[in-house]
Amino acid sequence: SSALRLASRLLNARKVVLLQTSGMATRGQKQSDEQRLTELHDKLSQSKRVLVLTGAGVSAESGIPTFRGSTAGSWRGFTISELACPEAFQRSPSQVWELYHYRREKSLAAKPNPAHVAIAKFEQFCLKRGIDFMLATQNIDRLHQRAGSSRVIELHRSLFLVRCTACGSVTENYDSPICEALRGRGDPSPQADSTPIPEDQLPRCAGCSGLLRPYVVWFGEPLSEGELSSVQEFANKSDFVLVVGTSNAVYPAAMIAPDARRSGAQLAEFNLDVSCSSSDVSYFVAGPCGSTLPKALPRL
Ligand code: BJW
Ligand code: ZN
């Protein structure tokens, strides 16, 4: 029934690749799926400009939970919009730091998966072939860079950037733990110890000893205008935009693919399930992107 739901939501897509959606696919269906995948692979290698746009689903197979959908994680029963906002940090810097400490440690312990690697290898392929390439990610875990991607725009910045709430200075920080008081804290279970950590024991600025905050883009905060417009400009001139592992539900990132589509780009989506932009796509490749991307993306 989930395959049926997927198929019916995809009626608008002109080319649908349904890989691994059901064990009941006939041999004929499987062959035409493979043909479409080969067609996508060939079109990508003949493109002049390609944007890859990724979201949390690309890191799901590295063990990092997503925010929405069947692979969503939960931290003490909160939704992401309840904690990823300036108001939550004002109300309880300790609680918000526990969440981000937990996610920093989880990302540091995680390894890039075959989806990250396929994207990094595709970048190498593009470089060699003179194809203009850009990777824009909503993820803050740095797994793309660790897989070898170099042209990465981090739309929501990074878990490993901090900003001083007093003097405004921004620094990179990979300390584990980021401060002694957070050691062993951040357990996601609702029963976990949530005794507030005194503010003077939370991460502090080396320059002015002000309170540091995670420098990610929270709800209600603007993305870097320069970065966003460079991604949008690139997208609008691309032959292909690959939309990978994102629900495409969070703005302004969610506008990039539909805008590019209106400017003439073809969209190819890689997701376990349909997302907000699926009805616009030329190719929908269903399944875990760690299995599907290595088949679809050309490499040297
Ligand atoms: C797999 C898979 C596998 C799983 N293989 N696939 C209308 C218009 C414009 C704005 C708004 C609007 N309505 C509301 C807003 C405001 C708001 C917003 O968009 N809200 C929506 C919820 C409606 N946007 C903002 O506030 C943004 N700022 C802004 O608008 O500023 C305006 C402004 C201008 C000038 C001055 C001041 C303000 C900022 C948004 C920042 C969001 N940040 C977060 C959290 C912070 C970082 C963090 O802690 O991580 O970023 S929210 C959270 O969602 C996170 C993600 O990057 C982001 C997107 O999620 P993503 O990546 O799509 O993940 P999921 O979980 O949603 O989806 C995973 C997908 O993968 C699913 O589809 C699965 O099926 C799939 N999947 N496993 C393939 N193996
Ligand atoms: Zn400072």
From TrEMBL:
Domain of life: Eukaryota
InterPro entries: DHS-like_NAD/FAD-binding_dom, NAD-dep_sirtuin_deacylases, Sirtuin, Sirtuin_cat_small_dom_sf, Sirtuin_class_III, Ssirtuin_cat_dom
GO cellular component annotations of the record: nucleus
Pfam families: SIR2
Residues that coordinate or bind Zn(2+): 164, 167, 205, 208
MF terms (GO), sorted A to Z: histone deacetylase activity, NAD-dependent; metal ion binding; NAD+ binding; protein-malonyllysine demalonylase activity; protein-succinyllysine desuccinylase activity
Domain Deacetylase sirtuin-type: start-end pairs: 30-300
Keywords carried by this UniProt record: Metal-binding, NAD, Transferase, Zinc
Active-site residues, record numbering mapped to chain: 156
Classification via HAMAP family: Sirtuin_ClassIII (MF_01121)
Name of the protein: Deacetylase sirtuin-type domain-containing protein
Origin species: Macrostomum lignano
